Amino acid sequence: MLIEEAHGNGARYSKACEVVGISHRTLQRWKQCGLKDQRKGSQKTVVRKVPQETRDEIINVCNEPRFRDLTPYEIVPQLLEEGRYLASERTIYRILRKADQVHHRSELRVGHRHTKPPERKATGPNQVYTWDITYMGRTVRGLFYYAYVVKDLFDRSIVGWAVHEEESEKHSRALFARILNGGKVKLKALHADNGHPMKGDTLMALLQKLNVAVSHSRPRTSNDNPFVRRESRIVELFFEPVVPSTAPTGTCRGSNPSV
């Protein structure tokens, strides 16, 4: 003990205790009770601590070719079958972790590169259209009419619309065939959500023939088109039931009325 060593060299107990941060009375009490250094942070002997020789042996065993790919929960039973016991599973884990040999061993998934989806931008009219189909109330509860609405992304004007009794890709194709007028309107891109009428083969064939690029919203999300959902929601909530015969189809460029 440092105090005893200092006292043996001629120092007084009180001065030596003052240097190490305790009082002389504390040192006397430790001696009477047979205690050693009880200061906080002092080095203490841990009786159950695994000796360094055993630690080295555990690391060497775990790094053997037959054990290198096994967990401690698999290593310990195999060693017991051979009549050997080095430590418990948790103790082996702590020793391996301290030696920086505990890592995630499951098969790592191949990383996927997440890129920002392409954005549609319009600098003038008739460059990018966006469209959607929304429900419209009928006089019969549980039955609906369907409003097909096409908007110009540049000025948000409605360039075409139609009302039908069902959702169908044939109605979608007929609407765009009329709006694009056989290619006279040089549309660059058309954006929609992932609904079936928006991705029908007949509609896609028409757009491909007219060299119109097609984009859709989030995968596996059938109703997600922020460009027209606001107007569609207004129609769903506030419009009175309509009859298709009163306004079956039309174009609204210029006056920009609602359906």
Write a structural description.
The protein is an alpha/beta fold. It folds into three domains: 2-33, no CATH class; 52-98, no CATH class; 128-250, 2-Layer Sandwich (Nucleotidyltransferase, domain 5), CATH 3.30.420.10. The protein contains nine helices and six strands. A six-stranded mixed beta sheet has the order 5-4-1-2-3-6, sandwiched between helices. Strand 4, helix 8 and strand 5 form a beta-alpha-beta unit. It is elongated and about 110 Å long. It starts with a helix and ends in a 9-residue tail after the last strand. The relative contact order is 0.10. The model is unreliable at 244-248 and 252-259 (pLDDT under 50).
The secondary-structure class comes to: alpha/beta
Percent in helix: 25-40%
Mean pLDDT: 77
Catalogue the unreliable spans. Answer: 244-248, 252-259
| Overall structural domain count | 3
Output the number of helix runs.
9
Largest sheet: 6 strands, mixed
Rounded to the nearest angstrom, the radius of gyration is: 40 Å
- Looking at the overall shape, the CATH architecture of the largest domain is 2-Layer Sandwich
* CATH topology title of the largest domain: Nucleotidyltransferase, domain 5
What overall geometry do the principal axes of the alpha carbons give?
Answer: elongated
- Name the helix and strand elements from N-terminus to C-terminus, one letter apiece: HHHHHHEEEHEHEHE
Task: Supply the CATH class of the largest domain.
Answer: Alpha Beta
